[in-house]
Amino acid sequence: MMAVCQHTFSENQISVIMRQALQGLKYLHTRTAEKKIIIHRDIKGGNILVNDSGICKLADFGVSGQLDDVLGKHRTVIGTPHWMSPEVLQSDSYNELVDIWSLGITTYELSVGHPPHAELHSLRAALKIPLVDPPSLPHPERYSPELHSFLRCCLVKDYTRRPPAADLLKHPFIANNHCSTHILIDMVKKTKAARQAREAEEQANNQDPLLQHNKQR
């Protein structure tokens, strides 16, 4: 959506998206009689889908995993490096709170337009993230104290001190925002209109005899 509309989300929009993402993670991270704890392991902007009503859904569970009943921790490196937590990149034991770090990086992404260290190749980013302090938003004066605080809560390097989704749903950045999902509808409409215009242009170009002739040459 950001790429198509060519602008980032507002804080109210980010709060609404994060609220829904946290609700999804709270469900995944809760063990019940019917299911084990599930780790998504690839939370990022591209894996949060928004429908015409502004309802957000977590998508792409291709790398998700269930926590082992005995150890309760994974030791595999799976995910998209720029969004991955330090403990995963270091191949340490980790739990479902890796998704909280990735959600924090996604918050940064939706605010700025790209994840931290976006200028680095994935391998270089993977080597750097465990060694440096957690990222903070550039031009901090542009953002509210609540957003900065929410980001700091998500991006705690020691995962044993990182709050779970249930606690983050009570954070002021989430709990004090009473906007509904309708706040996302205009951006969804703009995205769909821009994509339809692009598809129409591509279709017209494909039907242009001169362009077809040049392609054949």
Q: Topology as H/E string?
A: HHEEEEHHHHHHHH
CATH superfamily assignment?
Transferase(Phosphotransferase) domain 1
Mean pLDDT: 88
Measured on Cα atoms, how large is the radius of gyration? 20 Å
Helix content: 40-55%
CATH class: Mainly Alpha
Strand order of the largest sheet: 1-4
- Could you list the spans in which at least 5 consecutive residues all have pLDDT below 50? none
Q: Give the amount of beta strand, in percent.
A: under 5%
DSSP strand count: 4
* Secondary-structure-derived class: mainly alpha
Shape: globular
Structural summary, described in words:
- The chain is built from ten helices and four strands.
- The protein has 217 residues and is mostly helical.
- The chain has one domain: Transferase(Phosphotransferase), domain 1 (Orthogonal Bundle), CATH 1.10.510.
- It has a two-stranded antiparallel sheet with strand order 1-4. A two-stranded antiparallel ribbon has the order 2-3.
- A hairpin with a 5-residue loop joins strand 2 and strand 3.
- It is globular and about 65 Å long.
- 30% of the residues are buried.
